[in-house]
Amino acid sequence: MENDTNSNTANNQNKCPHHQEQDGGVVPEKTTSSGKCPVMHGANTATNSSVMDWWPNALNLDILHQHDTKTNPLGPNFNYHEELKKLDIDALKKDMHALMTDSQEWWPADWGHYGGLLIRMSWHSAGSYRTSDGRGGGGSGNQRFAPLNSWPDNVSLDKARRLLWPIKKKYGNKVSWADLIVLAGTIAYENMGLKTFGFGFGREDIWHPEKDTYWGAEKEWLAPSDERYADVEDPTTMENPLAAVQMGLIYVNPEGVNGKPDPLKTAAQVRETFARMAMNDEETVALTAGGHTVGKAHGNGDASVLGPDPENANVEEQGFGWHNPNKSGKGRYTVTSGLEGAWTTHPTKWDNGFFDMLFKHEWESVKSPAGAWQWEPVQIKEEDRPVDVEDASIHQNPMMTDADMAMKMDPIYKEISLKFMKDQDYFSDTFARAWFKLTHRDLGPKANYFGVDVPKEDLIWQDPIPTGNTDYHIIDVKDKIAASGLSVSEMVTTAWDSARTYRGSDKRGGANGARIRLAPQKDWEGNEPKRLAKVISILEPIASEFEISVADTIVLAGNVGIEQAAKDAGFDITVPFSAGRGDATDEMTDAESFEPLEPLADGYRNWSKKDYVVSPEELMLDRTQLMGLTAPEMTVLVGGMRMLDTNYNNTKHGILTDNVGHLTNDFFVNLTDMKYTWKPVADNLYEICDRKTGKVIWTATRMDLVFGSNSILRSYAEVYAQDDNKEKFVIDFIKAWSKVMNADRFDLK
């Protein structure tokens, strides 16, 4: 593989890069007494050791520092939804349609149409989504950054994004990269004849790679898929939270399992992978066929001679990667996946050509010019072969991937395919809906959608919630709750459990809808079903009496508990509250799709369902990041929750106080007090003892002690332990609490 990255390294390895040449000579740098360059070296990540390199077992809090406002060039006051109101959507769509056939000299369009390329860009942006943790997807424009911008499966998408730049430049802040990347595919389908289901704007850009997303443990691209399966013969054993079968792929290997053609084995992997994206069999067939109805695969050349990916390419490439020295390196000589050919006779037209081609021919496994396995027809009429992308007088063989052949050979997929083949309107509608789901799955509820093309129909995967009542006297409801006999612990715990399901990754879960009272949440172990049922049975009649939602009542109850605890600590304070939550019903809830939201651990309630390979404190960080909290917010919430006696199953671990139920800073005071010692007595269990007498005073877990052991978290804990920050602790706790309670209130944002 061509690699110019280090071509000058040998000649310059002993020179400081801050030398400057003048009049043909080198101007000596100023040196310190030791003769070293005074300019800080090590900005290059390849040569700069991090703290984690020195101490790999230390708790890495970077996951909570993602997307700091300092990385956002638009500033903390930028409001994308306000900018969207200024967007001329019709003009933008007109420009996008024009782009489809405005072939550029620097990167010509296949058959004069960019549809296939731009659809692939949108697809690979949205298609990285997985239900297990809600991460991935097209909702943030993350495809612009590593590692996604340099994945082997994303070769040439650097060109697709650059084709969009003139439009992004024109409309500026009024349309995000995230929206533009996803919109491109939808417009491409419309331009080629598909009646699409709709489109919603509203995706906000990030300005830094999402390092918190786990894409797999492999150390090389396209490592054998065996590495992420307990048994590669059983796709359901793929490691969670992963969905793609290999590092650097969006879905499955198009050549077959581990690059070996076997459509039935591939079908099993396709089924599991698409299920982990919340797609059923019919949606899977529709997306596979619809994605391959247009465009082509590119492999007419030697893939081994491609230059480095965008992150490794030299600066003169200006963000481009995979330089192709094969003749023009473009058009018919493009190398992307390594497979070569179109799937249909008319690759720039939305039709039923995929199924016609698949079922009307016999297929054999052959190698592409790039050496990749693909399927080509044994016999085919000249007029059924697609024309060359550059010369319409030349016809080329079509091809199918192993996943395409699975649509014909897997019995279930075959039945669905034949149904689509016989009814193109049904296929088109099913695909349009599946495409809409694919490209909007991580945008969250419809409250986040913007634009004239947002479908009016409510879809169950959007987690619909009716609008709640706001016309009631909050104080009267709070008084009724306070007189209900519920304890501070019961009220706060139930509100927390209702809200903690929120995932900022795909904007699902949260307190709105009160789905904690519905299946499957009401039966989750972490929600303590018996305790939960008791609390709900008391709160539901109160909600009915005041004609308000149970969701509002649950959150109000949590606020009442906190206010009582704060008052007992000497602070008369009101927890902010915004009315208007609604109550979802069983009919509005896709119970199966909510299963991945079940908490398997919750450091805030000092609970783990079982022992995991990952440490309890790392699991706490993961939940914290999904809820959108910072490290200081995590710290103050954990300390407060301990004081409010919210531990799972009433355990006393980490409740470092003699004033249980009082919202004091005792957790931090006693955690940092040097009159105690800390002694491990079992896995994830420690005794906190009087240093002089050895008497056991309290017990704690790793999720408690990490706030004293980790240098960063200890610095936060010490702030809240100070004598002058007792009130600050209460105020900060309430701010963080309200953030969690309102995380899913998109109607307020």
Polypeptide structure, described:
This protein is mostly helical and 749 residues long. The protein has 24 helices and 11 strands. The protein has a 3-stranded antiparallel sheet. Strands 1-2 form a two-stranded antiparallel sheet. A two-stranded antiparallel sheet has the order 3-4. α8 packs across α11, α16 crosses α17 and α20 packs across α23. The radius of gyration is 29 Å and the shape is elongated. It starts with 8 loop residues before the first helix and ends in an 8-residue tail after the last helix.
Low-pLDDT windows of residues: 1-47
User: How many helices does DSSP assign?
Assistant: 24
Spatial gap, N to C terminus:
49 Å
Biggest pleated sheet: 3 strands, antiparallel
- Give the overall pLDDT as a whole number: 93
The total beta strand count reads 11
Radius of gyration: 29 Å
Give the tags:
3-stranded antiparallel beta sheet, two-stranded antiparallel sheet, 11 strands, elongated, disordered N terminus
Quick synopsis:
This protein is mainly alpha-helical.
What is the fold's blueprint, element by element?
Layout: H1 9-12, E1 20-22, E2 25-27, H2 51-54, H3 80-84, H4 89-100, H5 115-126, H6 157-171, H7 177-191, H8 263-275, H9 281-291, E3 296-297, E4 341-342, H10 353-359, E5 363-367, E6 373-377, H11 402-409, H12 411-422, H13 424-440, H14 474-482, H15 488-499, H16 529-546, H17 550-568, H18 591-594, E7 601-602, E8 607-608, H19 616-626, H20 631-643, H21 666-671, E9 676-682, E10 685-690, E11 696-700, H22 702-709, H23 711-721, H24 726-741
Antiparallel strand pairs: 1-2, 3-4, 5-6, 7-8, 9-10, 10-11
